[in-house]
């Protein structure tokens, strides 16, 4: 008995000690180790190095010599934020608790083309309808719908109200200017209300290995008609440079529909779905890990171009008019 | 006196806690640890020269890493053991046999908005051994069972480099087509799965048994995003004799 028990505990001790072998300790949390963790993960999983012609190894050569063991958290954050800024990608952030790095150049260097006060005063007025996140108002015989964030979910009943009002109009304007994105399923649901048949609107591929060109195969992205009813009359979608991420996808969905056009300025992009990661010092980050192209193989990361390029006129705005909405109304009426 | 020419069937029901540590490099290079609840149900079919065990495992619980990020991890397993032995009363004995492990792990990261779900599955075969030692103390009957298995060869399916679906999976293919496209071999040396279970039973007057079970599970699946886990569990067991 004693012999067997000893053998058993010896056996148990040996295998219990395997934990260190099966699962080595976590990497360290010193400044240099944190820098290397972030740089290596971005190098292994970021999806736009080739498309943006970025040399990530050269960026490492540029930033790594500035890292030292004595540097404080703020200094390290600023260095890492500067390194990530080089990716020129709105889906790249480093979150530290005390600050969140970002690159918003995709809209900051371009005309705003949107005035929320003007919309409220001249178009929505005081009696506009609110159906979940959708704000809508009849502008004579055209339905104007404003959706400010795809992060706010639309319900089927919200959408049904819009579809029924649209059916009593000559056309619909969907204003997604300044809509910075959110959940892609909300974009698909809204677009489904205007689709007559299932259509491929884009193709997406995901990183499948550490090489800058390692991707899975292109997969079709489709929209399908809404089962509870659709509106197939003319639709104009208003976009600007601050229409980003899920809003870029929405613009592309609408662009392929035969009854819809896009108007305004191109979207800001955001065609890569972000993947998340964490550093051993407690900071988290995200960056794009997919690529999406339209039917002409143009990257959605570069934004969706509009069918009609129109900027907001300061003169029109001073008269209380949004000339993008005015143009959209004219387009709809010319289709009837 | 039991008629050893006949077969007997028993059911083992156990529940307890598992100290679990896992690392999925598709999420992070950091370890996630925590105490999970664990339950198992095992049916044992004892025949004159062969004993088979069919074990269903379930474990679920929250895990945290050292910086406080969390995930929920669930394990569902189906493990069979087959032992070959002589037709004689249960005395102190060592039995050799083989085992088939089917293990599915799914993890949901609570801090990541996209690609927050990852899983792995493998099915494999390998040798197994058990040691049984009946004991008597102050007129009471006790039994110490220890069994272990080491998986050698099989196949595995794991989440992809970024997303939950395995690389090679395509929404356009058939289920079987996707299954074969996503499958990779499980080969000892590259991949690991080892388990050890040691139980101490006290025989009740009803011929059922009450026991305490210690369990060790070690797994490691290599590939483009390696996954590893290590679990120690302590379970309370009730063995019910069915016939």
TrEMBL record, chain A:
Family matches, as SMART domains: TSPc
Listed PROSITE patterns: PROKAR_LIPOPROTEIN
Record-annotated Tail specific protease domain positions: 117-311
PANTHER family from the UniProt entry: INTERPHOTORECEPTOR RETINOID-BINDING PROTEIN, RETINOL-BINDING PROTEIN 3
Protein name: S41 family peptidase
Species per Swiss-Prot/TrEMBL record: Cyclobacterium plantarum
Lineage: Bacteria, Pseudomonadati, Bacteroidota, Cytophagia, Cytophagales
């Amino acid at each position: 008995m004693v012999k067997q028990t000893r053998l058993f505990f010896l056996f148990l001790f040996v295998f219990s000690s395997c934990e260190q072998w099966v699962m080595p300790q976590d990497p360290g949390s010193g400044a240099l180790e944190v820098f290397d963790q972030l740089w290596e993960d971005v190098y292994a999983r970021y999806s736009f190095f080739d498309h943006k012609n970025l040399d990530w190894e050269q960026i490492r050569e540029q930033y790594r010599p500035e890292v030292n063991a004595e540097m404080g958290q703020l200094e390290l954050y600023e260095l890492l934020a500067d390194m990530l800024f080089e990716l020129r990608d709105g889906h790249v952030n480093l979150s530290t608790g005390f600050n969140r790095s970002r690159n918003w150049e995709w809209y900051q260097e371009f005309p705003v083309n949107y005035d929320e006060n003007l919309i409220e005063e001249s178009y929505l007025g005081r009696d506009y309808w609110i159906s979940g996140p959708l704000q809508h108002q009849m502008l004579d015989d055209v339905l104007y719908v404003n959706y400010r964030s795809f992060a706010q979910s639309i319900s089927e009943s919200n959408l049904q109200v819009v579809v029924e009002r649209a059916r009593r109009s000559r056309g619909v304007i969907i204003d997604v200017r300044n809509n910075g994105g959110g959940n892609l399923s909300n974009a698909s649901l809204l677009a489904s209300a205007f689709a007559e048949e299932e259509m491929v609107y884009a193709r997406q591929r995901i990183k499948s290995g550490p090489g800058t060109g390692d991707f899975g195969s292109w997969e079709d992205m489709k929209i399908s008609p809404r089962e509870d009813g659709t509106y197939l009359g003319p639709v104009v979608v208003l976009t600007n440079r601050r229409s980003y991420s899920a809003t870029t996808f929405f613009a592309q969905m609408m662009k392929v529909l035969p009854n819809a056009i896009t108007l305004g300025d191109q979207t800001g992009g955001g065609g890569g779905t972000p993947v998340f990661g964490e550093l051993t010092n407690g900071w988290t980050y995200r960056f794009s890990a997919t690529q999406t192209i339209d039917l002409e193989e143009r990257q959605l990361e570069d934004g969706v171009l509009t069918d009609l390029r129109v900027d907001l006129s300061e003169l029109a705005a001073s008269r209380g008019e949004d000339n993008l909405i005015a143009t959209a109304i004219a387009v709809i009426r010319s289709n009837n | 006196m039991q008629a050893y020419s006949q077969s007997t069937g028993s059911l083992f029901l156990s529940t307890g806690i598992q100290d679990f540590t896992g690392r999925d490099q598709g999420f992070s290079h950091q370890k996630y640890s925590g105490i999970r609840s664990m339950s198992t149900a095992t049916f044992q079919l004892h025949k004159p020269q062969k004993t088979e065990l069919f074990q269903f495992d379930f474990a679920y619980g929250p895990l945290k890493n050292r910086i406080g990020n969390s995930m929920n991890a669930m394990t569902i397993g189906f493990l069979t053991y087959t032992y070959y032995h002589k037709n004689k009363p249960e005395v102190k004995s060592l039995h050799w046999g083989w085992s088939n492990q089917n293990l599915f792990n799914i993890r949901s990261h609570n801090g990541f908005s996209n690609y927050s779900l990852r899983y792995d599955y493998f099915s494999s075969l390998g040798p197994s051994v058990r040691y049984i030692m009946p004991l008597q103390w102050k007129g009471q009957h006790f039994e110490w069972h220890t069994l272990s298995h080491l998986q050698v060869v099989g196949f595995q399916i794991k989440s992809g480099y970024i997303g939950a679906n395995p690389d090679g999976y395509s929404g356009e293919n058939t289920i079987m087509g996707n299954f074969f496209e996503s499958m990779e071999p499980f080969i000892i040396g590259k991949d690991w799965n080892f388990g050890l279970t040691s139980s101490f039973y006290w025989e009740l007057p009803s011929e059922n048994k009450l026991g305490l079970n210690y369990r060790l599970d070690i797994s490691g699946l290599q590939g483009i995003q390696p996954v590893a886990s290590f679990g120690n569990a302590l379970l309370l067991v009730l063995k019910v004799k069915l016939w």
